[in-house]
Amino acid sequence: MNEPIYVTQPVLPELEAFIPYLEQIWENKILTNCGPLHQQLEKELCEYLDVPFISLFNNGTIALVTALQALDLDQGEVITTPYTFVATAHSIVWNKLKPVFVDIDPITSNIDPNEVEKAITDKTVAILPVHCYGIPCDVALLQKIADKNNLKLIYDAAHAFGCKYQGQSLLNYGDLSVISFHATKVFNTFEGGAIVCHSAEMKQRIDQLKNFGIVNETTIIDASLNGKLSEVHAALGLLQLKTIDETLEARKKVDQIYRKLLQDVQGIKCISRLNMEKDNCSYFPIVISEDYPLTRDQLFEKFKVQNVFARKYFYPIMTDLEIYQKYSAETPQAQLLSQQVLCLPMYPELTIEQIQLIVNVIKSVM
Ligand code: T4K
User: Fold this and answer.
1) What is the pLDDT of residues 98-130, one digit of tens each?
2) 155: β partners
3) Distance 154 CA to ligand 1 centre (A)
4) Is the CB of 65 under 6 A from ligand 1?
5) What is the tens place of the pLDDT at every residue in 215-257?
6) Are residue 225 and residue 299 in the same domain, yes or no?
């Protein structure tokens, strides 16, 4: 039996390279609260990602919660996609806002701007789309809708580290963008995340909110969380940045090989990535239609027998989860995609032999 192949495997630097950073931390005894490594990582990330301001967080979820809080939204409705990870919806509810789920465009798997427009009411305060799998949303149209209706636009860009689209970082669109640096992401700091914003004033507000709302010893601006990234995590980020271009290049190769080997398999469609100046190939989702001899769930089980652990990102959709059923909505495209999608293993160290094995499992029933 082959070694287990998981949906992803984190990239890690050489352990020896990490030691000097730990020695520095041990030496100066600054462990957290936006120390020197934290500041350096913010600076280097702004340069690498080509974004004006970034605030690091201990994970993407707290960053999402804080992003919504930072915009001071009056209690109301936030239009979002049901085809996502639960953190997107949780962040809305944590802010005592009401999620309004609308359907997706099945080609991109992202929120459908026409459906967004239809769902706007006088209670709507913001739109929270997700660049699912790192595939850009229709950023131009969404901005137009947000401007026309005076709504805030916050992107859940958890999957979109390093993507460039239509001449700039994908993270520059909207009022705020939130990234995740979780172990399963393209760029990881074990756990971590960040908010990208457009002004020094907003960065200052976010930095205060991620530190309990502290302005100074006697002033607290809001009841907010502790979202700070530690110095150890920041150190790892600095090291990961040194090899990120190689990481992205390796992912692209895996993506290309899969596409080539799967191009003629009846009933299997690889979700296309839009034409981007820079893509991160963060996931490799395939859609299994009725023309394929097995259902998605049967293929998922068949993989498991072969020690291959593909994942159903994203199934079930939010409105099918018991906790979100009270926000139910008609979203047939999201429903269908969630029943047909399977994310294949995708990470830089996946070998040609492993890709071949995965493809053979798919082809073996033809
Ligand atoms: N918004 C969106 C759209 C998101 O997708 C996410 C997170 C967020 C917001 C929130 O960001 P964070 O707060 O997480 O920063 C994973 C991740 O935990 C989660 O970060 C991610 N999205 C989501 C899509 O997937 P699981 O429960 O599927 O992960 P898990 O533990 O089953 O890991 C998958 C595979 O990865 C494992 O089978 C093996 C491998 N793995 C995983 C970990 C954690 C490793 O090899 N090493 C590891 O340390 O949720």
Assistant:
1) 999 999 999 999 999 999 999 999 999 999 999
2) 177
3) 21
4) no
5) 999 999 999 999 999 999 999 999 999 999 999 999 999 999 9
6) no
Is the minimum distance from the CB of 60 to ligand 1 under 6 angstroms? yes
Asked if 143 and 249 sit in the same domain, the reply is: no
C-alpha 255 – ligand 1 centre gap (Å):
20
Q: How many domains does the chain have?
A: 2
- Over residues 30-42, mean pLDDT: 98
Pocket test for ligand 1, best of 92, 184, 282, 312 (most atoms within 8 A of CB): 184
Show the tokens assigned to 209: 């909110």
Residues 80, 67 share a domain: yes
Residue 274 pLDDT: 87
Residue-range definition of the domain harbouring residue 64? 15-102+111-241
| Residue pLDDT, tens place only, 266-314 | 999 999 998 999 999 999 999 999 999 999 999 999 999 999 999 999 9
Q: Give the confidence band of 366 by pLDDT, cuts at 50, 70, 90.
A: confident
Rounded to the nearest angstrom, the distance between the alpha carbon of 59 and the centre of ligand 1 is 11
Strands 193-197 and 176-180: antiparallel
Residue 253 C-alpha to ligand 1 middle, in angstroms?
22
How many angstroms does the Cα of residue 127 sit away from the middle of ligand 1?
A: 24
Cβ–ligand 1 distance for 105 under 6 Å, the answer: no
The reply to whether ligand 1 has any atom less than 6 angstroms from the CB of 165 is no
